[in-house]
Write a structure and sequence with these properties.
The chain has about 250 residues and is of the alpha/beta class. Helix content is about 15%, strand content about 35%. It is built from 4 helices and 20 strands. It is globular. InterPro entries: Calcineurin-like_PHP, Metallo-depent_PP-like.
Length: about 250
């Protein structure tokens, strides 16, 4: 699957609130972008990450699931064939702690009512229960929406902290996943893109250097332009945005 175009103008936005520095509550908007891809004949794929916010007390990801159902009812989008979540789906209940960590099971439960869900955990995500009918990847591969998807969760960092692992271990897990020749590699922390503001991990870039005909989906660092190409590999950044691929 190769993305040929992303319309930079959102066709829809969701206002929400999110934790800011110093305990301040910030107002934000979640943009919805349309993308087109070749070899994508299975219906819309909804891909998003870094939904760190709330709407009327609900986690943003739960509210997003409800919004997707409304958009389908209104005919704005076709029923999704699959939903991919690239991590960091939690925010403090009172929106008073920037970078809070917590249980994100309710987001997955809400999303799976719409379409098959695949995901990786971000460095602020916890799962306090076993989820049924949801694929949470961490070094493994699964089938999703007629595609083969590999995933590695968390970020490179001190392994004593939540969902972090050493550089060498992270690279080994990415390379091992790529030996399965997936169509899509789902990460929370991704490699850098070609533009100076498309930040990412050089260690992950090294790990994917031999990949071919691959779409990498990531979040963690926000890019103004969500798409970059590295040879025959595309990198799609969905930090704080929803991309719907047809």
């Amino acid at each position: 699957m190769k993305i040929t175009n992303i319309n930079p103008v959102p066709f829809h936005k969701m206002p929400y609130e999110t934790s800011g520095p110093g305990g301040l509550v910030r107002k934000a908007e979640l943009p919805f972008l349309r993308a087109h891809a070749v070899d994508c004949e299975i219906g819309p794929l909804v891909i998003t990450a870094d939904l760190q916010g709330r709407i009327r007390g609900q986690l943003l990801g739960v509210a997003l699931a409800e919004e997707l159902e409304v958009l389908v009812e209104l005919g704005e989008i076709d029923p999704p064939a699959g939903i991919a979540l690239a991590g960091d789906l939690y925010d403090h209940p009172e929106l008073q702690k920037l970078g809070a960590s917590g249980d994100v099971a309710e987001v997955y439960e809400a999303m799976k009512r719409i379409a098959p869900v695949v995901g990786v955990l971000g460095n602020h995500d916890q799962l306090d229960q076993v989820l049924n009918d949801v694929s949470i990847l961490d070094g493994d591969v699964t089938g999703w929406a007629d595609l083969k998807v590999a995933g590695v969760g968390g970020i490179i960092g001190n392994p004593s902290r939540l969902n972090r692992r050493r550089e060498e271990e992270f690279q080994v897990m990415v390379r091992r996943a790529l030996t399965q020749r997936p169509d899509l590699l789902l990460l929370h922390q991704g490699p850098p893109g070609n533009d100076c503001d498309q930040r990412g991990s050089l260690e992950i870039l090294e790990a994917i250097s031999s990949s071919r005909d691959l779409l990498i989906v990531c979040g963690h660092c926000h890019w103004n332009d969500p798409l970059s190409e590295n040879g025959r590999t595309q990198i799609l950044n969905v930090d704080a945005r929803v991309v719907i691929i047809n």
